[in-house]
Amino acid sequence: MRIPINLATEPFRQDRAPVAAYAAATTLLSVLLCVLAFKFFMDRDRVAETRTTVQRLSTETRALDLEQAKLDAILREPENAVVLQRSYLLNTLVARKSVSWTRIFADLEGVMPSNVRLIQVRLPQIDSQNQVLLDMVVGAQSPGPVIELLKKLQESPRFGPATVHNSVSPTENDPLYRYRVSVNYAQKL
């Protein structure tokens, strides 16, 4: 019978491969820690610069808001109310005058199918973002050509999606299907 007895004070173990792997992992993690610490300190400096910039811009914005409030207060004074109303009226007239009817009809001619009639175009409305809204009445012998017009309006770079507000079926006096359509018109003002 054989009994394995090791009389050495420290028995021999094969730990070289795991110890080498632990050393490599420790070295890699230490390098990664150094890189992350470097990035942290660099980002901390950038964040401080960004905060300073944001604070400066906030101060400038507050100063501009105060100046705007002062100017608004001056404009609201009773003796300036007439000038403000007149200025608003003139600006509105200039904005309406800047809409070119010739350009509107030329652009409509480019998208209008031959079997659709333009019956009425109301005065274009201009909203606060300087977008022109066309409100028009079109007519056709059948609904198909009007649907084709709506598709062409939507695909056109000058017009946007069209909204049909109402439709009128043909009568004895008027043989056309009539549709009231509104569409955004992208004319540079």
What is this structure's SSE topology?
Blueprint: H1 16-76, H2 78-97, H3 101-111, E1 116-121, E2 125-126, E3 132-140, H4 143-155, E4 159-168, E5 177-185
Antiparallel strand pairs: 1-3, 2-3, 3-5, 4-5
Structure notes:
The mean pLDDT is 86. The chain folds into 2 domains: 16-76; 99-185, Alpha-Beta Plaits (2-Layer Sandwich). It is α+β, with helices and mostly antiparallel strands and 189 residues long. It contains 4 helices and 5 strands, in the order αααβββαββ.
* Helix percentage range: 55-70%
Rg for CA atoms: 38 Å
Q: What is the CATH topology assignment of the largest domain?
A: Alpha-Beta Plaits
Shape: elongated
Q: How many E strands?
A: 5
Mean pLDDT: 86
Tell me briefly what this model is.
This protein folds into 2 domains: 16-76; 99-185, Alpha-Beta Plaits (2-Layer Sandwich).
What structural keywords apply?
4 helices; 5-stranded antiparallel β-sheet; Alpha-Beta Plaits; 2 domains; 19% strand; 189 residues; alpha+beta
